[in-house]
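Team,

Forwarding the record for the chain on the shared tracking sheet. I've put the sequence and predicted structure together so nobody has to dig through attachments.
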Amino acid sequence: MARGRFASKKVIDFAEKDFVTLDENTLIAEAAKAMYERDVCSIIVTRNDRASNTRRAVGIITARDMLHRVIALNKSPFKTVLSRIMSTPLVTIDRDSSIEDAISLMRSKKITRLPVINEAGDLLAVASLKSLVRIAPSQKEAQDAIGV
């Protein structure tokens, strides 16, 4: 991707700060309900880190994951927990990274959501490819950004 207008804009400034997290032992049915109630398409999966007594992001699950990894495989959403189907390890990006770097990482990893972290590894926000491309001033620049 050519260095352009995206190179100077930070991913943290355009990432969603209101995101949903659930424990890795949460049932898929509960996660689906949370997604519906919060009108979101993804959930960050967390685990208790006993050493630091904090919760750490360990994976991500999307509505598509639920469809492909639970419903299509005839698994019960009332018996399957998030840790069984989450995408892990979690691909993240530093808060000070550019939008261009975020889009490039998403393209290379074939993902559409990217958790944004600080130096300590704390989860600050979640960037979506859709929201990052939306800030492109022209359709051509948006298409160039996602490689169309």
